[in-house]
Amino acid sequence: MSKLVKTSEQQTSNMMEKLPQEIILGILSRLPPTSLLQSMLVCRAWLRLIRDPLLVATHFSHMADKDGPSFIFQSNRPSSSYQLFFIDFSDFHSQGKVMFKKLPDLMSIYLVDSCNGLLCMRDARWIYICNPFTRVYLQLPKLVNYPAQVGRIAFGFHQTTKQYKVIQVAYLRQLVLLGGRIDVATSTLVQSQVHVLTIGDPSWRHIGTLPYDLTRPMPKALVNGRLHWLSKPNNDTTASILISFDLETEQFQEVAKPDCCGSNRCFHHLMVLRGFLSAGAYHDNDELEVWVMKEYGLKESWIKEFTIGNHLPPTLQQNDLLHFNMAKARFPNSSVRVLCILRNDEILLEYLNRVVVVFDPRHGTFKELTFDAMPHWYKIVVHVGSLNWIHIPVC
User: Fold this and answer.
1) Where is the F-box domain (predicted)?
2) Longest CA span, the chain
3) Pick from 175, 258, 281, 336: most CB atoms within 10 A?
4) Domain map (residue ranges) of the chain
5) Selection from 368, 339, 371 nearest residue 102 by Cα
6) What is the phi/psi pair of residue 368, to 5°?
7) Residue partners of 154: CB distance under 8 A and separation at least 6
8) Closest listed residue to residue 333, CA positions, set 348, 349, 345
9) Residues 83, 132: Cα–Cα separation, whole Å
10) In angstroms, rounded to a whole number, what is the distance separating the alpha carbons of residues 340 and 308?
11) pLDDT value at position 39?
């Protein structure tokens, strides 16, 4: 066996010596991460080559520039052990095909966020950074848990500093005695605590408090090295405030919205469309508008890109329909989220954490997508399949 391994390594070495490095990188960087991971088992030479930082970076660049987006789904039911699924739209425009793949179990942990091919996940005690393809993960230093806390966890990368950071905003609520048991008061939030961890550092840093409410479960948007969220100033208004957190300076600030977003039109959820900070806004007629900031930080650069009419996917059963209508009555279009724009300008929508729909803005048509083994309820995040290791140890 050792002779076979040495022969394979020698053949690999000879091939690598004959071919220019850019050709080797060009070939391997276009392969799916699953194929490259299987190739690592060939011999030590292939292992070293595929873990080379230059190949990892080149591969990620090609995966990020594919013809279609990719996502991670996670079942929202504990009975299914929070199973992860990978879905890739690379061949959707050219062949009408979508790749849907069940990923190996990592741990019984909950999906929080995705950045550069890495997932931020958590359980009741710990936060983890992991690559769902390589199954390499890092358990982060523990942050002291505060009683009765709610809040947000987000994960991001700054291109200039080359640092990954996790931010946790925790809100402490008052505890009250109800019916002989301790419960959380429904009154206003008492205090916020903001902590930041730079991946690789031994401990979290407390950077102060935050005068914004981030307790609603809304997705963030990472643009220009800044994390973005929507916040409501109080419970008496539907208006939202757009705030950002700079991953380099670790400062919060408000981001200007267009003047037209007044009392009858309000940003509801954020996303990144073609690299631009974007937002879904509802209107009195229940239509969902998508606004895009064409020049970051410039208020006047917000434009309404398109409008999505009312649609109810057929898959939603009676119980889902009741939930859907109740959500719309409380907050119009709260159950509809824009995921991304495909290369052919069609738009991916997600309804009620249950159904993925392709919307064609040119013809105003909707097409529901179904997949074998699709979980009944799920969380979905945009995710680039990669070999990213960020120099974390194999556990």
Assistant:
1) 13-63
2) 78
3) 336
4) 2-61, 256-363
5) 371
6) -80, 140
7) 112, 113, 120, 166, 167, 220, 227, 229, 245
8) 349
9) 11
10) 13
11) 72
